[in-house]
Prior knowledge:
The protein is of the alpha/beta class. The protein is built from 33 helices and 24 strands. The chain has an 8-stranded mixed β-sheet with strand order 4-3-5-2-6-7-1-8, sandwiched between helices. Helix 28 runs parallel beside helix 29 (837-858), helix 28 (808-819) crosses helix 32 and helix 28 packs across helix 33 (929-940).
Amino acid sequence: MIVTLSVRPGRLESTMTQDLSPAERYAAARRRAAEQATALAGFREMYDFGLDPFQIEACRALEAGKGVLVAAPTGSGKTIVGEFAVHLALQQGRKCFYTTPIKALSNQKYSDLCRRYGSGMVGLLTGDNSLNPDAPVVVMTTEVLRNMLYAGSQTLLGLGYVVMDEVHYLSDRFRGAVWEEVIIHLPESVTLVSLSATVSNAEEFGDWLDTVRGDTQVIVSEHRPVPLFQHVLAGRRMYDLFEEGEGRKKAVNPDLTRMARLEASRPAFQDRRRGRNMREADRERERRQRSRIWIPSRPEVIERLDAEGLLPAITFIFSRAACEAAVQQCLYAGLRLNDEQAREEVRALVEERTAAIPPEDLHVLGYYEWLEGLERGIAAHHAGMLPTFKEVVEELFVRGLVKAVFATETLALGINMPARSVVLEKLVKWNGEQHADITPGEYTQLTGRAGRRGIDVEGHAVVLWQRGMNPEHLAGLAGTRTYPLRSSFKPSYNMAVNLVEQFGRHRSRELLETSFAQFQADKSVVGISRQVQRNEEGLEGYKASMTCHLGDFSEYARLRRELKDRETELARQGAAHRRAEAAVSLEKLKPGDVIHVPTGKYAGLALVLDPGLPAGRSNGHRGFEYHDGPRPLVLTAERQVKRLASIDFPVPVEPLERMRIPKSFNPRSPQSRRDLASALRTKAGHIPPERHRKQRSQAADDREIARLRTALRAHPCHGCDDREDHARWAERYHRLLRDTRQLEHRIEGRTNTIARTFDRIVALLTELDYLRGNEVTEHGKRLARLYGELDLLASECLRERVWEGLDPAELAACVSALVYEARVGDDAVAPKLPSGRAKAALGEMVRIWGRLDALEEEFRINQTEGVGQREPDLGFAWAAYMWASGKGLDEVLREADMPAGDFVRWCKQVIDVLGQISAAAPSAEGSTVARNARKAVDGLLRGVVAYSSVG
């Protein structure tokens, strides 16, 4: 019989046992007793809500000793499975590491686990903080764990479980390789818990985990605990994106389709004030006016959501400046979402969290404007904000004291900040290179914030109407709930020396071939390999069909093919020769030459107005120049002025006559054209065009063709009655063989790609004396302690003593060039640099990079594929120098011209690399680098940079 569970998990209704036989009741009691004895039963008692089926399934697999991959939507409670791994580790007396992709998420998870287990049981390791690192449960960023594995840290002793939250980050092209490094290098005794957003190839990823980590169970849940409803806000009305109806396939609301069709039939509004310097408010106004359908302003959208009971809401705007402008627009509109009591709570919490910031810095950071928005329940959230400010916004939003947040897409990356509604202003974002449509994966990630579990009955995603919006396209974004996980794994210099030191070259190569990147590449080859097999079967059939009883028909077919190829080649050479002759004849033309255009739309009599010679050939006159051959400008006998191309002259052309072109001739004047064309017809209309004599074919005198024809006639198969039938099969055989070889070449290009890149990196490192076979030299051991995009450049700078003699502030300026990357492209204005020794050292760093770049080109290490050293960016050197020299925040931010959040983030990255340099720098007598690197850290780690991001 089928039993439906309708009560809270962990309990059974007494009615369930009423219809069971005594044996069935005994078996059920045994199952209940066994379940109560599991670790899961005790874990479930710690929560005041029941677990979902996918959570229970994953926890049972963990308790059975399996690794798990859990792929489920944002907000569905995946972290429960990670917390169960923590519970198991503590119960078994082992350690658990909980890794996250970003520091903010690490800080948040650390706070959550401290509340549950106490701060004595939980540690935190990020680039900024090291709290209780020997605790049985440690939360850390993934890079920290990777560095531990390479360093063979003692902290790894007793490690039983590793939770990798947001494991889909391995698709990230900048940092994704770190996740694969950790997965590959973790000891076999460690159970891996991988938590991912819903991806379409979870089974493929699970197969790879099963290969490299052992028994791994894949649990996929596409069920959202809080249903999500999709809307479009157009004019004063909010439309449902989908029509109400039964079935999985939802139809787009016909009202939206009708609106799109109606708006497309009307001309767009044009605003002539558009330009680079348009203020954000003007740009917002233009965006609304350009559509014929009224688009509400940002304050009006928030008021509408408030009236509909859809707050709190996150509005995603793909611009930091626009997020700040949106808050100001709401303040200017007099929007207030908090009552007096809420305002007092906000002020109290903000003052408590910012008490450590000096008053003079608060003014520089725009504290009072920020506080006014918070008191009204409105805030911005983006990477340019001070980390402390962002954390306050997050806490207030979760507590319901901030009800409207304008955020960039960085908020969607794992931070626990759910809302009732999510608003998307546009479906286009800047991807670093161009404005591009957001992908289904990005749409799912952004709208996944809508709907708070245990609070909201439903979540709402609202897209603002824009001119040119295609409702079908939006429905496609909303209907595609998953996106594929693609590896971004690439070997690096640091990775190479660490692997060779631990495993030797051969074993390292084998390890890299177990990466997910290679797994995917090999899997993509499977389909091609099957096609090759089918082709080979077809080749056997074709070979049988072309068999001739008189002789070897494959040899006869080869002779026919060689003859055809030779004839084609000679024909091609003849055509090229004729084109070259035609180009030479065109280059001899002068203004006033009368010619006959042999072919094309403008064939016939024409007068040359301008020869249009290739660049660099003036022929004694001025005119337009072209790089693809002469393009003469002519007046035809039919009064048309046209620029001709080489395709109009398949044969050489000779002037028939000469004419004087009046100085008053204006090609744009119909009268001028009419008069000159009339004179042209009078002057040369009676002259017949020169007939181009066809030249003797080269094939007639070619010895190779004569030899092949003789060989063909002498071949036994030449006299076969079925010769042409055999020849058709032979031609099919040849075409299929050519296609098969191309497929085999593709297979060869995709297999062992990671290992081949590793081989090239090892060859370069051997050239620079970082490696000698399986031995890692002293230089290599230094490189092994330097992590980062410019690891090899940093190592070479230490090796060549570029930074010796620099004071701490100068060293900070130089190290900043290793981490900083401007958000926009190269500016025309050179960055301001500190003078003296620092400037000379920065110049020497660029020179060393140039040498490494040339070496990478020689060893075919391609930077565009994510391998290799990018050029150091000097744009942050002046700001780092000033801050390390003790200058005030106001002066530094004004000189740096960057938001406080960006400044703090870059300073912390410089601090991280300075720490690596202090550990890696040579300890030779007289060397000052290690000591000054530590002093530079102290100089940078002050003021806003030093404010702790953990409470």
